[in-house]
């Protein structure tokens, strides 16, 4: 897809990351021109090769830390973007407990810098990467955007809640910013081309990459963290959404902001499938779809895990004209295809 000279430019911070890179593809497919900013502290430059494979051309990428005010200002001066999608953040829950100041400094300062630079350069549209972790263990399910946020279970989760409040308060101060905070549920899968996917940087904390690495023989066995929860099969329930569905939701969010003829606005929107799946069902579906028998054992609960959380996606369907289209089976097939691809390297 060759860029037309007047494709609207979108700054994508963390654009070489798992969700960011898939969103870059969806942006180009929707006629936008992404401008990536990434310091590659939690991603690899090979992602740019994957993007070139899918898109048939290079995407502008600045290697910079989003906390580097001089670098970020220079990018705003050079690139006439019409919006920002802010993915760049540290996101390892466990590490955030060990190193809270690293998370508060990095995740909050980078957002504050963006909110200072955007009005200065006439950039009004912001889509922010938030997380269902702000809900904790909801009293009622499925969880809606009106469900009260609960105290975060980790400094990582707290940076997401605080970031939402920073954006809300900035908008309420009449800053000329229109913002949507998208609360992701559990992103899984990979681009169907297997040119992009979730990079295995260290031992996976998340379920699906651990499943695919176990199936690939990289891990000897998967531990299911607890089967004594109050759920149909005793294992936790989550809302697993294909990363390409999630990417497409960002394009719809940008379009929504573009259409708004107001100077300032802020809202939050759940981005999930609306379906809850247990851990054992993820395993069973993976085995059915791939023909691989997974070696797993039942272990103790993981501290901090909520029992079940899944989304009410009525608002996303209505406000963004968006619905997750890909099935769990497709997500797991795509995740496995990606794992097989990178295991061959
Ligand atoms: C899912 C389920 C585990 C690994 C986290 C973050 C959240 C978001 C998504 C960034 C749980 C179980 C897992 C394993 C297991 N990240 N599990 N064995 O914890 O729902 O959400 O990632 O925004 O903010 O908190 O995802 O994939 O880690 O766990 O049994 O080896 O799988 O107990 O029930 P989680 P997860």
Automatic annotation (TrEMBL):
GO cellular component: cytosol
Keywords for this protein: Carbohydrate metabolism, Isomerase, NAD
SUPFAM superfamilies for the chain: NAD(P)-binding Rossmann-fold domains (SSF51735)
Reactions catalysed: UDP-alpha-D-glucose = UDP-alpha-D-galactose
Enzyme kind, highest EC tier: isomerase
Pathway assignment: Carbohydrate metabolism; galactose metabolism
Keyword Nucleus annotated: no
Cofactor: NAD(+)
A Pfam family this chain is assigned to: GDP_Man_Dehyd
Domain NAD(P)-binding: 11-334
GO biological processes: galactose metabolic process
Single annotated GO MF: UDP-glucose 4-epimerase activity
EC annotation from Swiss-Prot or TrEMBL: 5.1.3.2
Quaternary structure, from the entry: Homodimer.
Similarity comment text for this entry: Belongs to the NAD(P)-dependent epimerase/dehydratase family.
UniProt name for this protein: UDP-glucose 4-epimerase
Gene from which this protein is expressed: galE
């Amino acid at each position: 897809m060759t860029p037309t000279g007047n494709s609207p430019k979108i700054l994508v911070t963390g654009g070489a990351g798992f969700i960011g890179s898939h969103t870059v593809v969806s942006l180009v497919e929707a006629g936008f021109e992404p401008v990536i900013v990434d310091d590659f502290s939690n991603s690899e430059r090979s992602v740019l090769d994957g993007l070139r494979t899918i898109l048939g051309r290079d995407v502008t990428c600045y290697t910079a830390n989003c906390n580097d005010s001089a670098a970020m200002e220079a990018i705003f001066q050079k690139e006439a973007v019409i919006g920002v999608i802010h993915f760049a953040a540290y996101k390892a829950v466990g590490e955030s407990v060990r190193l809270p100041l690293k998370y508060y400094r990095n995740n909050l300062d980078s957002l504050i810098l963006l909110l200072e630079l955007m009005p200065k350069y006439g950039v009004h549209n912001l889509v922010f990467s938030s997380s269902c972790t702000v809900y904790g263990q909801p009293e009622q399910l499925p969880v809606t955007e009106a469900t009260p946020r609960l105290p975060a279970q980790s400094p990582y989760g707290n940076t997401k809640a605080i970031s939402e409040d920073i954006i809300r308060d900035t908008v309420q101060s009449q800053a000329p910013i229109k913002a949507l905070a998208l609360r992701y549920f559990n992103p899984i899968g990979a681009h169907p081309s297997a040119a992009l996917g979730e990079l295995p940087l260290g031992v996976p904390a998340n379920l699906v990459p651990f499943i695919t690495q176990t199936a690939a023989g990289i891990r000897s066995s998967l531990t299911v963290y607890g089967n004594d929860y109050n759920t149909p099969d005793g294992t936790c329930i989550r809302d697993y959404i294909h990363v390409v569905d999630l990417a497409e939701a960002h394009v719809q969010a940008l379009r929504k902001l573009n259409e708004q003829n107001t100077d300032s606005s802020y809202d939050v929107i759940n981005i999930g499938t609306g379906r809850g799946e247990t851990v054992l069902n993820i395993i069973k579906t993976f085995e059915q779809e791939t023909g691989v028998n997974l070696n797993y054992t039942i272990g103790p609960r993981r501290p901090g895990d909520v029992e079940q959380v899944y989304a009410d996606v009525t608002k996303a369907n209505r406000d963004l004209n968006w619905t997750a289209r890909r099935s769990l089976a497709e997500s797991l097939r795509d995740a496995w295809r990606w794992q097989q691809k990178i295991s061959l390297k």
